[in-house]
Automatic annotation (TrEMBL):
CDD domains: ttLC_FACS_AEE21_like (cd12118). It comes from Paracoccus caeni. The lineage of its organism: Bacteria, Pseudomonadati, Pseudomonadota, Alphaproteobacteria, Rhodobacterales. This is 3-methylmercaptopropionyl-CoA ligase. PANTHER family: ACYL-ACTIVATING ENZYME, BUTANOATE--COA LIGASE AAE1-RELATED. It catalyses: 3-(methylsulfanyl)propanoate + ATP + CoA = 3-(methylsulfanyl)propanoyl-CoA + AMP + diphosphate. Transmembrane segments: none annotated. Residues 456-530 form the AMP-binding enzyme C-terminal domain. It comes from the Bacteria. Belongs to the ATP-dependent AMP-binding enzyme family. Keywords: Fatty acid metabolism, Ligase, Lipid metabolism. NCBIfam families: PRK08162.1 (NF006020).
Amino acid sequence: MVAASDIYEIGLPPNPANFVQLSPLSFLERTAAIYPDDDAVVYGDVRRNWAQTFERCRRLASALAARGIGKGDTVSVVLANIPEMFELHFAVPMTGAVLNTINTRLDADAIAFILAHAEAKVVMVDPEFSELVQQAITLTGRTDLLIIDVEDDSFDGGTRIGSATYAELLAGGDPDFAWKLPDNEWDAISLNYTSGTTGDPKGVVYHHRGAALNALSNIVTWGMPHHSRYLWTLPMFHCNGWCFPWTIAANAGLCVCLRAVRAEPIFRLIRDEKVTHFCGAPIVLNMLVHAPDELKDFTHEVKVMTAGAPPPAAVIANMEAMGVEVTQVYGLTESYGPSVVSAWQGKWDALDGEQRSRMKARQGVKNVVLSDLMVADPDTLEPVPADGQTIGEIFMRGNNVMKGYLKNVASTEKAFRGGWFASGDLGVMHADGYVEIKDRSKDIIISGGENISSVEVEDVLYRHPAVMEAAVVARPDVKWGETPCAFVTLKPGKDLGGVELREFCQQHMARFKVPKTFVFGDLPKTSTGKVQKFLLRDRARELRD
């Protein structure tokens, strides 16, 4: 007699009829079959439907395969948010190869490192970055790279550095290319490099399963209606655009492409293309808040998803006053982008504007794909009390956590501890189960033995009506060890000094948290809008009294 625990395994193995490898490639095929004539991509005068987009992806995959590109090969791309960047998210993995989207703001040395470390076989180049990429390729010393120029009629400048163009690949490709899903959903689909601010960047490997699940989770997290219209203000090179290329394919939505993130084209496209959704770092939201009022002439419902840094409550309040609903998410390159969401509760609807903004400023709870989330002691992995006060490290685990770091076993093992991924971010757990970030571990300020959250101080600074941007870092101090140093950008036409700003801070926080130093001027930022605090820490160390 068979044990009861075994009866569900007898004669019930997986087979092609009931088990298919998860991959976002299936999203494109489905949408092209069901909605072939619906618009898929808009960029200037370019407007393509889903049937055309699917055909172009198959043509490109065929052309790459004919040049020997296949499973395990790396295809690196240095592109702006143009339609070809969207297509490559499908065409490259259709061959079994891995897509490596490179940050366009990196210098030649960093790009050369990535090309070498990723063992790239192909490099796709935007004309805007052709000189930069040529320098990087020269630094690698490699002569075997297949370099493809991705021409853009709307961009004036750049030079051809490749042996063929994207258009030429398409012209020679087979529209009926027999692509297939991965043999294993654990196969790599993309490679994303971390910023490398404390050393060489690390290559984060995504698999098809995680990409598909997090792409679908974006729809659930945001409550996206079918056929949503998405504006590409977030770089597609950043965590594969938080998986949104695959999300829009699953949603049968519209990709509204945008080369440069500026207020005027953003508001124009929101109005003219009836954009319903877009993403961006808090710094992008702040830019839109302070744009001229005459640009803000849309009347339909618009939603924005923000992450990259804890958004000040004041920025959230100002966006929503403008008519844009804000959803904050949290994640890392290692978690496919957004994996935690500040999920809204109906019981908070009655809160006033400031209270609503403060609830939305918390990072939140796990999305539907993330299996678990905790704030714990980094050494013992013991969860901290859910009191909203005790600081610990944020840990997560689930299908939307990376495979690991490419060719870096030591860093992979360090990141995975006790069955958890260690984020390196410090936060608290509130009694309702919502996580709130207090700082990166390297950004916490320890003054006289007291921990000071730079995020908390920045939040107060943003409340001042003359402050446009603020960033706080530690400055060495003989007496206290470290003290907060605030770098501040004022709104145009505003005049404010350190004495007045210090008095304002003293009214809104404990005195030991008030910055001892104020520096006024522009803040250095990455291409995704994150303030480069490592540069500010260097400047703070060099300041003289």
